[in-house]
Design brief:
Blueprint (H helix, E strand, L loop, with lengths): L5 E3 L5 E3 L7 H25 L4 H11 L12 H16 L8 H16 L15 E4 H8 L14 H13 L3 E4 L31 H18 L1
Parallel strand pairs: 3-4
Antiparallel strand pairs: 1-2
Length: 226
């Protein structure tokens, strides 16, 4: 395991080490947040059947505090990893293994996250121009509209087509080989597993809930000093 901690840069700046963003501390907490986001969307869509389903998603995005996600990390080297990991947290939820409504929520989240990277800010923030996806995942994403063929999901279809068209116009997707050859770097997330010190660890293995709580607490602690 790797103990990931902030490191001090020159001129008194505090920088989060890039490995933090590929560690279980960050990845597990963000996965939980993404799950909450897309499940909230699925639940509210089912109840409201909104005429403007993308507007509903944006409202949930704002209400859950995602608006400020880009202003957490400023160092370019750390930000590069942060952005790539965040986008993987969304793309991994667009696979055919997910329910169509949750796939749409993940796609909407990816679209907003990608397009709200600050282009003009002081200080200027590093941004990425491509979203890395494996060829099989890309095929699944571009065929997502075909799965929205029921009355329940029909309202989503034009919005999904618009999002995919907009991604296509800017050449957003960087298509990598098939997932079976593991072309993404890191190969798997999380890459670093952060565990408690064995001298202070409680007897017995921590439950999944305890591990998630620890990851969440670490992320909250990070936010306090950022």
């Amino acid at each position: 395991s790797m103990a990931v901690a902030p490191s001090s840069a020159s001129r008194g700046q505090i920088i989060v080490q890039p490995p933090y963003f590929t560690s279980s501390t960050f990845v597990d907490a963000v996965r939980e947040d993404v799950t909450l986001l897309i499940q909230s969307y699925a639940d509210q869509y089912e109840r409201a059947r909104p005429v403007q389903p993308f507007t509903l998603f944006k409202d949930i995005w704002v209400s859950q505090g995602w608006t400020w996600i880009h202003f957490k990390i400023f160092d370019a080297r750390s930000r590069e990893i942060f952005l790539k990991v965040m986008m993987r947290m969304f793309t991994e939820r667009t696979t055919v293994a997910e329910a169509p409504i949750r796939r749409v929520g993940a796609l909407f989240g990816l679209y907003i996250f990608f397009n709200t990277q600050p282009s003009v800010s002081v200080p200027q923030l590093h941004s990425v121009s491509h979203i890395e996806v494996t060829s099989d995942l890309y095929d699944a994403i571009i065929h997502l509209p075909d799965t929205l063929d029921t009355e329940y999901l029909a309202l989503l279809r034009p919005h999904v087509i618009y999002v995919l068209s907009d991604f296509s116009k800017v050449g957003a997707f960087h298509i990598l080989p098939h997932s079976r050859v593991h072309p993404l770097n890191p190969r798997e997330l999380p890459r670093e597993l952060v565990v408690e010190d064995v001298t202070t660890k409680k007897r017995g293995r921590p439950s999944k809930r305890e591990r998630k709580k620890k990851a969440k607490d670490s992320l909250v602690a990070l936010n306090k000093w950022l």
